[in-house]
Amino acid sequence: MAATRSALAPVPSTRTLRSVDTETTTRPDLRVVPPRRPTGAIVVASLVVVFGVLLATAALNTMLVSGQRDLDRIEAQIREGQQRNQSLRLEVAELESPERIVRAAEAQGMVVPDEVTWLTRRPDGGSEAMTEPADPTATDERATGGPGGSGG
């Protein structure tokens, strides 16, 4: 580097330059300029980083849109299932109605009996038939699913 500085160092000049006003001027002092830093690598690295960030942003946006589409599809299926469930509940309520059951029984030939016979269980395990319950104020264990009834 010393050889470069000495080569670039100002050489005293004995010559004079001609000027318009005939004054003699001397050459200005020269100085060594520090070498430029390589900016090409920095620019390329910056462009690669910016491109990478933009690519990552686009990939993230694509994933979000895809996930939102799947979420919308699932929510539509849930709404459809809820509507189906509601219509099935209405259908069950209509099928369970006593009026419909009576109509279906009559359509199959069943008739309302003139006299109702109640079967009660004896403590020894046998059964007795009677036309009226023994205690009309007592609740029927069969209707409540109690120990003596089958619920029907």
Any overview of this molecule?
The chain has 152 residues and is mainly alpha-helical. Strands 1-2 form a two-stranded antiparallel sheet. It has helices spanning 2-8, 40-96, 98-107, 141-144, and strands spanning 118-121, 127-130. Helix content is 51%, strand content 5%. It is rod-shaped, with a radius of gyration of 53 Å. The chain is built from 4 helices and 2 strands; from the N terminus they run αααββα.
Topology as H/E string?
Answer: HHHEEH
Query: What's the tally of helices?
Result: 4
Mean pLDDT value: 79
Beta-strand residue percentage = 5-15%
Report the structural category. mainly alpha
Strand tally, please?
2
Low-confidence stretches: 142-146
Helix content: 40-55%
Q: How would you sum up the global shape?
A: rod-shaped
Largest sheet, order of strands side by side?
Answer: 1-2
Largest sheet: 2 strands, antiparallel
> From the alpha-carbon coordinates, what is the Rg to the nearest angstrom?
53 Å
Q: End-to-end span in angstroms?
A: 114 Å
Protein traits:
5% strand, two-stranded antiparallel ribbon, 2 strands, mainly alpha, 152 residues, rod-shaped
What's the topology here?
Blueprint: H1 2-8, H2 40-96, H3 98-107, E1 118-121, E2 127-130, H4 141-144
Antiparallel strand pairs: 1-2
Can I get a quick summary?
The chain is mostly helical and 152 residues long.
